[in-house]
Every structure is written in C-alpha cells, then in structure tokens.
Automatic annotation (TrEMBL):
Gene Ontology biological process terms in this record: purine nucleoside catabolic process
Source species, domain of life: Bacteria
Any one cellular-component term (Gene Ontology): cytosol
EC numbers, comma separated: 2.4.2.3
Keywords tagged on the record: Glycosyltransferase, Transferase
Protein name: Uridine phosphorylase
Catalytic EC class: transferase
Protein family membership: Belongs to the PNP/UDP phosphorylase family.
C-alpha cells in the first residue's frame, strides 16, 4: 500500500536502494546502468525506479535535499517497503586540501548540529554511524575496482548558506569533519533505530579550500565513478 510520499505497492521496491539527493541523478543512473527499469514513484517528482544491474534487482530513488526529506523517504523505505540497505550517493563540499574536486568519500561517521536524531528517538549525541559491515564491503569493493576513496567523517549540515560563511576550519579541528553534505546523519540514524544498513558515498562538487565548484548539470550526470562503486557494492552486498 502507498504512503503519503511513495506511491509504490509492497514488492515493487528492491531490498537495496541507491539514493542521490537529486531525482534527476537517479534518472541518469537508471537510464545509463539499469536493465528493464520500471518507475515506481512520481509523487512530488521524487523519481524512484526499480530495475536490474548485472541481473540483480536494485532500486534507485531521489531523497531530496536535507535531513527532513531523506528522513521521511528512508524511514518509509525501511519500515514500510521492507528495504534492508540504503546507499546515499551525494555531492559534497570539501573542507580539506587533500580531498579534491571529483574525489570520492565514504563516510565513516556523520557529525551534525541537527536535532533530527534527538527528536526522532531521543538520541543526544552529535555523531551517527553507517553500517560497519556495509562500509567495509564498499571499501573492499573500491580496492577491487581500483577506485580510490577517502574514508572520513562527514559534516551533515542543515544550512547551505551560512551567514558570514561556514567556519569550516573549526569543524575540521573540533569534530574531524572533512567535507559537508546535508543528509547522512539522518539516514544513518534511521538505519540504526530500525536495524537496517546505511552508507554514504559522496563525490566532491565544491572546495572550500580552492573555491572551485562544478555545474548543476555535472552534479546530475558526471558522478559515474561513485555510481559504479555504489552499484557494484549494492549487488555484491545483497
Ligand atoms: O547532491 P545531493 O545528493 O543532493 O547532496 C548535496 O547537494 C545538496 C545541496 O546542493 C544537498 O542535498 C547536499 O547534501
Ligand atoms: O551540502 C553541500 C553539498 C555540496 N557542496 C556544498 O558545499 N555543500
């Protein structure tokens, strides 16, 4: 039965879902990599599809931007549709010199100022964590595919435009954050409370160090290295 945000019937969504923030990034991956895709969601234009990659069933769905949005979709996927594993595939801004534009980061923790986890279940800490088993699988897969990744702490921010600019050096120094995005703290938390698996792969689209950034079109359709790592990890981990 449908939810208020996802129109799919039970069984139409695979056990493993890849989630970019951008629904058009979801469509790009589906068009390029999936066999026989079927669209299961168009509510609010949050496009979701199920198809096959190398013969294995997999779903790809946009999460929207920010923790409230991925909080809703990931919760419904895990608790209502029987999804076991979500791998976020996002863009991020680098806070450190050695993580450069187009580098791929695998989050080993997410620091946040957000109240998401406290409101959701009373969790008071400011870091949440991915599934260890899933992360170590992705890490092994990256080695096997000769894809270089940084395993690092992510800053999950509620605010894209910070007055006066983000004090990123303080976030690096005080919390070990290496890059910023806006969803993984909530995704990791939902997976934790529901006993499911979550991980977050990011491609660097902006650098706080060099001020470089890539276009909206590139954020939609140029993250193939991360996409291949996510697809290969998803089908192997199932
Ligand atoms: O490219 P996505 O996956 O949306 O991720 C990042 O991009 C958006 C901001 O531009 C935020 O959602 C942030 O987390
Ligand atoms: O949240 C984000 C995502 C990409 N780039 C940023 O600077 N912040």
């Amino acid at each position: 039965m449908a939810t208020a945000h996802i129109q799919a019937e039970f069984g139409e969504i695979a056990k493993t879902v890849l989630m970019p923030g951008d629904p058009l990034r979801a469509k790009y991956i589906v068009d390029k990599y999936l066999e026989n895709p079927i669209q299961f969601n168009s509510v609010r234009n949050m496009l979701g599809y199920t198809g096959h990659y190398k013969g294995k069933k997999i779903s790809i769905m946009g999460s929207g931007m920010g923790m409230p949005s991925i909080g809703i979709y990931s919760y419904e996927l895990f608790s209502h549709y029987g999804v076991d594993t979500i791998i976020r595939i996002g863009s991020a801004g680098s806070y450190v010199e050695n993580i450069k534009i187009y580098d791929v980061v695998l989050g080993n923790s997410a620091y946040s100022e957000s109240s998401y986890a406290k409101v959701q279940s009373g969790y008071e800490k400011d870091k949440s964590y991915p599934s260890e088993k899933l992360n170590s699988y992705i890490s092994k897969k990256a080695l096997e595919l000769n894809i270089s990744i940084h395993e690092a702490c992510i800053h999950s921010s509620d605010v894209f435009y910070v007055k006066g600019g983000t004090d990123y050096k303080k976030l690096v120094q005080d919390h070990g954050c290496t890059c910023v995005e806006m969803e993984s703290f909530a995704l990791f938390h939902n997976a934790q409370v529901l006993g499911k698996n979550a991980a977050c792969l990011l491609t660097i689209s902006d650098s706080f160090i060099t001020q470089e950034n890539i276009s909206a079109k590139e954020r939609q359709s140029s993250f193939d290295t991360m996409m291949i790592l996510a697809l290969e990890s998803a089908i192997g981990f199932q």
